[in-house]
Structure formats: structure tokens, C-alpha cells
Design brief:
- The chain is 32% helix and 24% strand.
- The protein has 2 domains: 132 residues, Aminopeptidase (3-Layer(aba) Sandwich), CATH 3.40.630.30; 172 residues, Aminopeptidase.
- The protein has 321 residues and is of the alpha+beta class.
Length: 321
């Protein structure tokens, strides 16, 4: 099969979005929103194979890798083998996949396949929450969150509002984003490399004027000024909202709790599961995500083909052979 990979543009979004939801999969990385956010960082290219599968080719610092194929589960093994053949015959490399979702790893029985090395990427597991819990903040376990929300609403009564964001709001969002970046926390500065590309990805999406109908955006305004915003997308197959972006003015107490709740109430009022992505190994971010009482996690894996010459050279320094 001749695979033709191309760099996805916003005009391709509606065409490729359905592929992500063809098989069971709860990973936020496995969605159209993250594809566009990280397109330049990972030099993401995609291929629509036989109108049945979406395949990925990514490259960073001379290293080629992929994502799991997005297709119907009964076609997963076939397109996994197609991808393997492309890496072996065209790239002359063993197949390597990062952030492989656990559903695909299990469906392909890769842990039992001696031709593949499978290692869990513990710091990159996604946090899963009950949609009702995050919208209602009911019970003792959410007592502190609810108090912060109520305090904000009392203090800014009549001065704040939630708005769904659209194309006409992009300049406001970009202006706020620049201010947020200047005031970013010390921990966020530790992740400077990825943060830079996340900001670049956001700029590209906003520049393209929210062309994607496949995601939602919303913001909290105080005294008419944007003080927090969030962007997310719905995975209809899992009845799950993936929250990819959440930025707020940290000088306003409770602003993050408010945008978290209000965004879900307005844009994803019925989503059963909320995926708030991973903590990238940052202690502060991990503490914040755990404080919302996750109901589970979406585990992710590195998958590397071993029955191909040179596979040991492909293992990143962070993995032990």
C-alpha cells in the first residue's frame, strides 16, 4: 500500500475527526484537538488509508514515530501491520509508537507479543473524572472547590459572566494568552520547551479563526475583561469531554475552579466522563489534578518493534533496555 502523508490543516479537521472515535479509546492525545495543538512540535503528518483508517507519522530531533491507527477495532491489526511495513520498508526503521492508548495495546495483545517491547509511560497517564462531579461539586470531597467557587461568585456578583467563545473573540484570547505567558508559574517555566509549542499551536488555531467545529471554547469575563478560558472537544464514542487547554489569571482566587466548572456546565452539560489530560510529571500539576478526585486513569504506552535490525538504537534514554 502506498501511504501518502500530509500536514493537516484546519480545513481537514472535519474530514479526519470521525476516525478518532471509530474504536474504543479514552486518551486525550488521540483526538483532533491535540493533533492541531502539537502539529508543529512533532511535525505531525497524517494519511487517510482506504478511507478506513487515519495513520500518523511524526518526527522530533531526527526520531520517527507514530500513534496507534484510528479505525474500526476489527481493522486495527491490519492497519497496525500496514504502519509497521511502512516504517520497515520506507523509513528503514522499526515501528515505534508513543502514547499508545491502553485499549489498542490490549486489543492487539502487544504485551504478549515477543516481537514488541511495551513500556508504560507513567507520567503521561490521563486523569478521568465524573462529569456530574465536576459540574456539581457536591459532597465533602469537593467542599474546598465549592467554597472557592461560591466565594468568587459572591465577591464578583454582577461583575462576572461566562461566554462561549467564537471567531470574533480571537484577538481577546490572544491578548490574554500573552499576559498569561508573562505571568506563568515557575513550574510552568520548567516545561518551557513544550509550553512554547503549546502557545504556538494555540496561536495557529486562533489565527485560523476557530474553523474547527469539532471543539468548544469558553471564557470567564470579569468587569468585561477576559480572565480565564478553556478549550475542549467531545469524544462521542466514549461520551467524554477532553479538556486540552485551561488558562486563568492566577491573581484572581477561584478563577480556575470557576472556569473548570462553568466550561463543563455550558459546553459539555451531559458528558459522562471528563478527561483533563496528564500531569507531564510536574508535582504541582499532579497535586491539582488529584485534588479533583479522579475516578480513573487512561494509561499510555511506548511500543517498539524488536524484530527489526537496529531496534535497540531506537530506545530513548529514558527507557532501560
Amino acid at each position: 500500500m502506498n501511504l501518502e502523508f500530509f500536514t493537516p490543516k484546519s480545513t481537514d479537521a472535519e474530514k479526519i475527526a470521525p476516525f478518532y472515535y471509530m474504536r474504543p479509546n479514552k486518551a486525550c492525545d488521540s483526538g483532533v484537538l491535540d493533533t492541531f495543538l502539537w502539529r508543529d512540535y512533532y511535525n505531525i503528518r497524517v494519511c487517510i488509508a482506504d478511507d478506513k483508517a487515519l495513520l500518523f507519522l511524526m518526527e522530533s530531533k531526527g526520531e520517527y514515530f507514530s500513534a496507534m491507527p484510528f479505525c474500526k477495532e476489527e481493522d486495527l491489526l491490519y492497519y497496525f501491520n500496514v504502519l509497521e511495513k511502512y516504517f520497515n520498508d520506507v523509513l528503514k526503521k522499526p515501528l515505534k509508537i508513543y502514547l499508545a492508548d491502553e485499549e489498542a495495546v490490549e486489543a492487539l495483545a502487544l504485551n504478549e507479543n515477543c516481537s514488541y517491547l511495551v513500556k508504560e509511560e507513567f507520567d503521561l497517564k490521563d486523569y478521568l473524572y465524573s462529569g456530574d462531579d465536576l459540574r456539581n461539586l457536591s459532597g465533602k470531597k469537593f467542599h474546598k472547590k465549592k467554597n472557592l467557587v461560591n466565594k468568587f461568585m459572591r465577591e464578583y456578583e454582577g461583575r462576572w459572566e461566562y461566554r462561549s467563545l467564537c471567531c470574533s473573540d480571537k484577538e481577546e484570547v490572544l491578548e490574554f494568552l500573552d499576559k498569561w505567558y508573562e505571568k506563568r508559574s515557575d513550574e510552568e517555566k520548567e516545561a518551557e520547551d513544550t509550553l512554547e509549542y503549546e502557545i504556538m499551536g494555540l496561536h495557529e488555531m486562533l489565527k485560523e479563526c476557530f474553523h474547527l467545529d469539532t471543539f468548544k471554547a469558553g471564557g470567564i469575563y470579569v468587569d468585561g475583561n477576559l480572565e480565564a478560558f478553556s478549550i475542549g472537544a467531545l469524544n462521542p464514542g466514549e461520551d467524554m469531554a477532553c479538556i486540552a487547554i485551561e488558562k486563568g489569571n492566577s491573581e484572581i482566587p477561584g478563577i480556575y475552579q470557576v472556569i473548570n466548572q462553568q466550561f463543563l456546565c455550558h459546553e459539555f452539560p451531559e458528558a459522562a466522563i471528563i478527561n483533563r489530560e496528564d500531569d507531564v510529571g510536574l508535582p504541582g500539576l499532579r497535586k491539582a489534578k488529584e485534588s479533583y478526585n479522579p475516578i480513573g486513569y487512561e494509561r499510555k504506552f511506548m511500543v517498539l518493534q524488536k524484530d527489526f535490525e537496529g531496534w535497540r538504537d531506537e530506545i530513548s534514554d529514558i527507557y532501560e533496555t
